[in-house]
Amino acid sequence: MTDTSTSASRRPRRAGPALALLAFAQFIIAADYNIVYVALPEIGRELDFSGQTLQWVVSAYAVAFGGFMLLGGRAADLLGRRRVFVLALVLYAVSSLAGGLAESPGPLIGVRAAQGLGAALLFPATLSLIGTTFAEGPERNRALAVWAAMGGGGLAGGALLGGVLTDLFGWESVFHVFVLLAGAALLAAFPLLPADRPSGAGPDAAARERRFDLPGALTATAGITLLVLVLAQGPEWGWTSSPVLAALGLGLALLVVFAVIESRSRDPLMPPRMFANPSLVAAMAITAVFGAGLGAQYYLLTVYLQDVLGYDPLRTGLAYLPLTLLNIVGTKVAERLITRAGMRAALSTGLVTGTAGMVLLALTLSPHAPFAAVLPGVMVTGFGMGVVWTSMWIAAGNGVAAGEQGVASGMASVTHQSGLAAGTALMVFVANAGTGGLDGDALRRELTRGLSASYYLAAGVTVLGVLVTGAALGRRHSPRTLLGGRGEQTPRQCPLRRGHHREQVRATGQPDQHHDDGQRHHQR
Q: Which of 141, 70, 481 shows the shortest CA–CA distance to 277?
């Protein structure tokens, strides 16, 4: 039997310290993505990156992260969540050590891809451990709010950490620090996380009978990588050049092959039945929008602070402190907003707030204005990001059986990272469109105009998320019933129970005992 709730027997004795470790792992993932932003100018100068290819220090991580996320989710469900958690941290430590020793662009990009693979294993293992440790509803919402707060703190705090380390020890230190962080998490994993069950034992037995879909994972990763390559290198190689057209055609063909593989696979990476869960579908759409729109904030702001205002890495890191604080506040507000008003209200609030913040930034960017002029936009955007970040991951795990928590988190994560990689490539192109051959004040003025246009574009993408939220989480699928919010829930008012009951029969051929007991109780 597989249940969306968590039995007390599976919960670790020290749930609080275990949650702290899982939140710390999320901090590592988020900080690793963002810590390189502040160090990018120095990395570009010392390793001789071009202005357009430098973004691959970011995109290589995002592409590998997104492309292998589905495989990571399946690995967590099949091999055991603690085993995959530990394996991912080892990969993080080794690749981070190699990153600090890189002496040319190629090896560094390869290291960033390896770190992305580590994140693709670690993220779903972390999220599914939360999903199987804490019961769905307010308890899991609180746990995910803590987890999300550390993720938001990692995204913004990673910039601060990167600034301090780069200023004091050079760009290599932004890689070496993760050897220490991953090592600390490894030491805590064995005493704090519950041991994985033997294969074929316990409630996860059905999940462990499944198989990996390696062809699906490889075709999806290759297809996504080639499409991002088109967006990233199109401006430099030419949109109609042979390499760009070949990459575009091959990338689309590989994604078609991926769809065919999934339709015929006995154990697809994206089980079609999971698309019947409106909360998961909404989460996948919102994570893509978040990545492509709000996720571009860190790249754009770093370029503005360093290339326009002339901030050094340390001042750039300190400038991220207000964003960090408002991001954390947003994650806490999201938890209460979801419980009291529902998922649709929380997501819409965060998306509208983030959109308003980016429009405000677009209006206030100036090559000569002080940072205080853009600070309100930074803070508003940071708050909106925190609300959306928490809400979309809560939505991804709701109504999902314990044995498929890794797959669900992988499905939502792959859309997030794909959107992030594509959005970053597009924003870089827009920001740099008119800067060729310029320098000095002329370059700063043109770059400011390009950054403003990028912010407007990111705001437009984020607005689409509001429409998606309304369509995917409409009245028929009440957020209160999906999320265990307040108010009575009769059998007719509880689509989650009915949806989970149908999923249970499909997945195992057996009805859910909790569901049957509940029905008999109401009949009495």
A: 481
Instruction: Identify the residue whose tokens are 């792959």.
Output: 414
| Cα–Cα dist 287/425, whole Å | 17
Q: What is the pLDDT averaged over residues 322-335?
A: 87
Q: By the 8 A CB rule, do 229 and 252 touch?
A: no
Query: Which are the contacts of 48, defined by CB distance < 8 A and separation ≥ 6?
Result: 104, 105
* Of the candidates 57, 73, 167, the residue with the CA atom closest to the CA atom of residue 125: 73
Structure tokens, 202: 């316990």
Cα distances (Å, whole numbers) of residue 59 to 31, 64, 232, 260: 15, 8, 9, 27
Q: What is the pLDDT of residue 156?
A: 66
Identify how many contiguous H helices and E strands the chain contains and give both numbers.
Answer: 21, 0
Half-sphere exposure of 266 (CA within 13 A, CB side): 5
Structural contact between residues 140 and 394, judged by C-beta atoms closer than 8 angstroms: yes
All residues at 6 or more sequence positions from 137 whose CB lies less than 8 Å from its CB, including other chains: 483, 484
- Whether the model clears a pTM of 0.90, i.e. scores above it, the answer is no
Location of structure tokens 């051959």: 437
Tokens of 348: 């819409």
- Within 13 Å of residue 317, how many CA atoms lie on the same side as its CB? 24
The answer to whether residues 233 and 269 touch, using CB atoms and an 8 Å cutoff, is no
